[in-house]
């Protein structure tokens, strides 16, 4: 009989811990690749606690338990997780390691799955426990898997090929670049464990993880340019074998750990963020030396070549048509009432599927009405779904995965009333316009070589700061090419220890989002998001050196109803009018009828 309640599941886990001589255990949202999104088979935290967010963890002892989330999930965790079973804990104010150090007690043995945590986390947590006389112990086989009776199997979908016509480079060329990097670093091999890195390096894709077109696999890349791909046999097709050729050995995924142990005497690069602790443990057990180095594909993947950049332009045009059709539909139907958040999200997906070669959404659509729009990471479901009220602000953040590129766009729009009388308040227009001013400032930024995203971030916030307000998320993240919608290493955000990537110098070819926002708790939220491509800029009379700016990639009208024109400078007004003229020029030939009429009206000069 299956365990239906979280109370029964927690009790079963505790019994399993007792059998193993453990006094506690840590449960993250993670997989063996430290992925942002994980397959159903790896949703251990959700199974144990009921929490459905994308970031969080839990810690369990034999008599108490806690769940740890950041500020994005303060409301959600209370809706989904029984406080009688799990105490709510906020990070970064605390952490599983700190909590366990306070609750496990001297002499306690706390288990962790080394395939789900980084080496750095294991060292830090181990020290925190050692300081109070407890011990962090790697487990062989996850104890949750031992009691999760109906745990899904990992996806068996076959791996597919990303043709060079879309990738812009062959995988032999990419492997050669990694081999040269290894030689320069005096290393023998590199473990490539991040799923999007494997996909980029070998020009393969898959359907194993929602929102990210990757195949569950690992690569060991060698300094002679050869590589070993570890992947389940059922995923391998004759076409894949032919694509990879003789220089890439295909081995079963189960052979990965033994292969690590066979690298005796080798110096092997392991990424500190994406290489789980088990990789370094296996290397050391086999007599190899793990060397902490950033995955050599990370930066190369982030710098898009000309083919990838053109693919993104094509994907944005496809997506722009779908989003325009959606916003036109919303402008007609939502003022009548009767449209809710789920219906709206489903309609947008329908338009994307109908118009372009959509393979998946790039993340869960944020379809947010009223106060829900003030939650930057809101996720609508059957329980949270509400109607979109006429006479209100509605925010939609969404994206698509197309073979030629990955999209991510946010539009905030005014939902009118049937009589056309309802208008946004002065406060709404003020805040929307200040967000727009920040968006334009990033879009127009010119900066010298070596500039990082943290140095640009203030531009997005300046107009909001002048009104005594701010937004609590980053301004921009990297985006992949038919890969992860959140791709490092670059990022635009406030510079602090929690914001990895804000100190990464921006390079030509990097794609970022530009998405400042404003959120009034319980009432409304505003965000305007386009994607931009970093490019070199020639500036007459500039000092020596290389200078950069951004090419805009996303083309969908920005709601003029919410703009307070008096707040815009002449330069900002000119930018907006040019943006709308360019949007019209690109999309008008692809639209017709009422949607074309809507586009023409929405792109009139301000």
What does this structure look like?
With 606 residues, the chain is an alpha+beta fold. It has a 6-stranded mixed β-sheet with strand order 4-3-2-1-5-6, sandwiched between helices. It is globular, with a radius of gyration of 25 Å. It folds into 3 domains: 6-147, 3-Layer(aba) Sandwich (Creatine Amidinohydrolase, Chain A, domain 1), CATH 3.40.350; 160-300, Creatinase/prolidase N-terminal domain (Creatine Amidinohydrolase, Chain A, domain 1, 3-Layer(aba) Sandwich), CATH 3.40.350; 303-602, Creatinase/methionine aminopeptidase superfamily (Creatine Amidinohydrolase, Alpha-Beta Complex). A hairpin with a 3-residue loop joins β2 and β3 (65-69). The model has no long low-confidence stretch (mean pLDDT 95). The relative contact order is 0.09. Residues 547-606 form the Peptidase M24 C-terminal domain. Residues 9-141 form the Creatinase N-terminal domain.
CATH level 4 superfamily of the largest domain = Creatinase/methionine aminopeptidase superfamily
Biggest beta sheet summary: 6 strands, mixed
Shape: globular
Number of domains: 3
Tell me, rounded to a whole number, the average pLDDT. 95
Q: Which radius of gyration do the C-alpha atoms yield?
A: 25 Å
Strand order of the largest sheet: 4-3-2-1-5-6
The CATH topology of the largest domain turns out to be: Creatine Amidinohydrolase
Structural class: alpha+beta
What percentage of the residues does DSSP assign to strands (E)? 15-25%
- Amount of helix: 25-40%
Just name the CATH architecture of the largest domain. Answer: Alpha-Beta Complex
| Cα separation of the termini | 65 Å
Parts with pLDDT < 50 across at least 5 consecutive residues: none
Number of helices: 19
Q: Tally of extended strands?
A: 28
């Amino acid at each position: 009989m299956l365990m239906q309640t979280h109370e029964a599941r927690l009790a079963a886990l505790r019994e399993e811990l007792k059998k193993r001589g453990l006094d506690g255990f840590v449960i993250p949202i993670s997989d063996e690749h430290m992925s942002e999104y994980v397959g159903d088979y790896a949703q251990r935290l959700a199974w144990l606690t009921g929490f459905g967010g994308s970031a969080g963890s839990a810690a369990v002892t034999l008599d108490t338990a806690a769940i740890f989330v950041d500020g994005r999930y303060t409301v959600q965790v209370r809706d989904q997780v029984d406080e009688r079973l799990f105490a709510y804990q906020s990070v970064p104010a605390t952490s599983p390691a700190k909590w366990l150090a306070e609750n496990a007690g001297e002499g306690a043995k706390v288990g962790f799955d080394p395939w789900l945590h980084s080496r750095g986390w294991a060292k830090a947590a181990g020290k925190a426990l050692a300081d109070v006389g407890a011990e962090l112990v790697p487990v062989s086989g996850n104890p949750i898997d031992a009691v999760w009776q109906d745990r899904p199997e990992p996806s068996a979908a076959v791996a597919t090929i990303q043709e060079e016509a879309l990738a812009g480079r062959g995988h032999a060329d990419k492997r050669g670049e990694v081999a040269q990097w290894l030689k320069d670093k005096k290393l023998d091999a590199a473990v490539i464990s991040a799923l999007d890195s494997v996909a980029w390096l070998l020009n393969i894709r898959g359907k194993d993880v929602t929102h990210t077109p990757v195949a569950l696999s690992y690569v060991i890349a060698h300094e002679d340019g050869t590589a070993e791909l570890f992947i389940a046999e059922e995923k391998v097709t004759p076409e894949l074998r032919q694509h990879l050729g003789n220089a890439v050995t295909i081995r079963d995924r189960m052979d990965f750990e033994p292969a690590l142990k066979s690298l005796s005497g080798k110096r092997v690069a392991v990424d500190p963020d994406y290489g789980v602790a088990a990789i370094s443990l296996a290397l050391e057990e086999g007599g190899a030396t793990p060397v902490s180095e950033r995955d050599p594909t990370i930066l190369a993947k982030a710098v898009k070549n000309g083919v990838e950049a053109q693919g993104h332009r094509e994907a944005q045009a496809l997506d722009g048509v779908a989003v325009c059709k959606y916003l036109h539909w919303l402008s007609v139907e939502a003022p009548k009432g009767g449209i809710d958040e789920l219906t709206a999200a489903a309609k947008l997906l329908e338009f994307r599927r109908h118009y372009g070669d959509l393979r998946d959404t790039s993340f869960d659509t944020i379809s947010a009405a009223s106060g829900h729009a003030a939650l930057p990471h809101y996720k609508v479901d059957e329980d949270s779904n509400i109607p979109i009220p006429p006479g209100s602000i509605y925010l939609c953040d969404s994206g698509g995965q197309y073979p030629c590129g990955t999209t991510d766009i946010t539009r905030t729009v005014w939902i009118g009333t049937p009589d056309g009388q309802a208008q946004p308040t002065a406060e709404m227009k003020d805040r929307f316009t200040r967000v727009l001013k920040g968006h334009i400032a990033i879009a127009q930024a010119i900066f010298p070589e070596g500039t990082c995203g943290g140095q640009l971030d203030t531009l997005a916030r300046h107009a909001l700061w002048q009104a005594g307000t701010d937004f609590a998320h980053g301004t921009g993240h990297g985006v992949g090419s038919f890969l992860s919608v959140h791709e490092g290493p670059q990022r635009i955000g406030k510079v602090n220890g929690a914001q990895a990537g804000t100190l990464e110098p921006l390079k030509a070819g990097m794609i970022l989002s530009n998405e400042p926002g404003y959120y009034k708790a319980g009432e409304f939220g505003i965000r305007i998001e386009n994607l931009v491509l970093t490019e070199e800029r020639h500036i007459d009379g500039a000092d020596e050196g290389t200078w950069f700016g951004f090419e805009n990639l996303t083309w969908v009208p920005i709601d003029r109803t919410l703009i307070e024109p008096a707040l815009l400078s002449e330069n900002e007004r000119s930018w907006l009018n040019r943006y709308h003229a360019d949007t019209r020029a690109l999309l008008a030939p692809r639209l017709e009828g009422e949607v074309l009429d809507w586009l023409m009206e929405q792109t009139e000069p301000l």
